[in-house]
């Protein structure tokens, strides 16, 4: 019986130690230059529904169920989705818009696991006909689930999706 208690205690101590050293926050972003004026790029990006044209997750489940609440391109707009195991279930709500600067939103995931992130799209004029776009998201890894991030590289995994999406965004905007 004592051996069992020592094993359980050792497991608990290990979990606590791992939770203490595991990453507590994350921030993943990628950028690209689009050869279009900042106002044109921003006016496209502020509409969440336009993400259906360039989002890598829409490609992973083109048949996902979607619902929209509110007026797209305005604070408070919510885009909900329910998809396959690759895209899960969740919603995105626009929380802030700064004209020709940024669109901020909150991502709430319900499946395959529950989490919340702050997403952002920022634009910066490089010259009259080129715009830097930054797409990213950040959040908090709560213990003990943060232990998972010792073994999962979110920057590498999600970063690839951001790069793919930004390349499609560039192609779409530059072809208009």
Automatic annotation (TrEMBL):
Pfam families: Polyketide_cyc2. Gene3D superfamilies: 3.30.530.20. It comes from the Bacteria. InterPro entries: Polyketide_cyclase/dehydratase, START-like_dom_sf. CDD domains: SRPBCC_1 (cd07818). This is SRPBCC family protein. It comes from Winogradskyella pulchriflava.
């Amino acid at each position: 019986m004592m051996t069992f208690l020592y094993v359980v205690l050792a497991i608990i101590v290990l979990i606590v130690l791992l939770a203490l050293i595991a990453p507590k926050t994350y921030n993943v972003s990628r950028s690209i230059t689009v050869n279009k004026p900042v106002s044109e790029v921003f006016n496209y990006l502020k509409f969440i529904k336009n993400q259906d044209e360039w989002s890598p997750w829409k490609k992973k489940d083109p048949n996902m169920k979607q619902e929209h609440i509110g007026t797209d391109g305005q604070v408070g707009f919510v885009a909900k989705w329910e998809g396959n195991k690759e895209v899960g279930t969740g919603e995105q709500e626009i929380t802030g818009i700064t004209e020709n600067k940024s669109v901020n939103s909150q991502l709430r995931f319900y499946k395959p696991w529950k989490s919340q992130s702050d997403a952002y799209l920022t634009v910066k004029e490089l010259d009259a006909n080129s715009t830097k776009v930054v797409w990213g998201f950040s959040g908090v890894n709560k213990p003990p689930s943060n232990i998972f991030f010792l073994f999962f590289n979110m920057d590498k995994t999600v970063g690839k999706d951001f790069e793919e999406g930004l390349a499609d965004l560039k192609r779409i905007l530059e072809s208009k």
